[in-house]
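User: Could you write out the 3D structure of this protein bound to pyridoxal-5'-phosphate? I've included everything you need below.
Assistant: Certainly. Input first, then the structure.
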Amino acid sequence: MTRRSWAEPWKIKMVEPITMTTRAHREQALQAAGYNSFLLQSDDVYIDLLTDSGTSAMSDHMWAGLMEGDEAYAGSRSFRHLCEAVEEVYGYPETIPTHQGRGAEHIMSQVLISPGDSVPGNMYFTTTRFHQEYAGGRFVDVIVDEAHQPSSTHPFKGNVDLAKLQALIDEVGADKIPYVSAETNVNMAGGQPMSMANLRDLYALCSRHGILVMLDATRALENAWFIKQREPGYENKSVREIVLEICSYSDGATVSSKKDNLVNIGGFMAVRDPEIARKARALLVAFEGLQTYGGMAGRDMEALSRGIREMVASDDHVRARIGQVEYLGNLLIGGGVPIVLPIGGHGVFVDAGAVLSHIPQDEFPAQALTAAVYLDSGVRGMERGIVSAGRDATTGENHRPKLELMRLAIPRRVYTQSHMDVVAESIIEVYRQREQIRGLRFTYEPPALRFFQARFEPV
Ligand SMILES: *Cc1c(COP(=O)(O)O)cnc(C)c1O
């Protein structure tokens, strides 16, 4: 059969030049950044795969929305458009706008969690767990064991292990569990989906015990695509229908709009219960802004309402988005580089623990690999391992995640296939010379969310 290529369902209308740097320049930049890719200047980066958060390219229709934003302080028309889009696409009648995802997590945690509560979740996300603990809760991981095994090819590594959840309910009692925090397309597991069957069973179990299900629906679109690909009965449904069904098995959600929603800033909390919405709005005015803007400009809400509709307008967008991630992943597999399988929705996760098996976890293998790749080509990834996991709030001990990963997150609609070729060639080259890479140690360790600002030096 002759090869039939696929290409992106968009063409380029405006370009942004990027800098190509020398190795000597990158050596200096890396030292100045304390070997932390978060502290690099973007001017020193060639291909930026630090995050897919807020780095998407908006469409011409979304940019036009910026001009049409209604900047009224109260009762903005653009807020109304946002509410309509959220209800149409996610199905929740109450929308609470926030400046980004963590703003929504803060408000939701403060409204629902009491000190001493347990909050089960399918693996933690950094800011989500922070806000749950900040509100006095205790995060309990109830994800399936396969999520912690980089080589497991389980199709739904984001699933909640219902036996683990039941054991927690038996141990602490349902009244000490305000909600289950269920993340779609689990970021920290490598962008791995939940199945619809698991979501349905989770909601049924929780409903029996009077426990709410709150989604982190930040990546519901990417999750929907995997359900369409992998779960029997969904192959002929559109991602639009699947996203709506995902949300139907929940009482509400927090969303960082900097991901699926295709905007550079924004987020929201959305719920069905007007009483929870009322409590959230009462806090919103203190922490984010009035209930009709919550930290976003009117133009941001206008672009966001368009982005929410655009992401599900046809399946072509998400097919190309995840197709590009898979393209990069398959190049790395071809080069022998160990990565998390199946390839996830928003990026490729290199198994740094396996690549740098000569570096102990206390010397931050994923951080060291990320620095080595930057040095080789100016490609910026990020650490997702022991540095990101942080310390236990009560004991002060390091959390010891089983996964020690370098994340290469792909911004949506920003880079071409040739950029992916350059990235793969660099990583394969670094992989060949892996024995020369040394571990790192802290020269500065911040007290919370340390991965953002920590500084290191080679041991
Ligand atoms: C990015 C992200 C968040 C936090 O959102 P921000 O907009 O960065 O505050 C929460 N959950 C998931 C799954 C995310 O990917």
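The first helix runs from residue 23 to 32.
User: Perfect, thank you.
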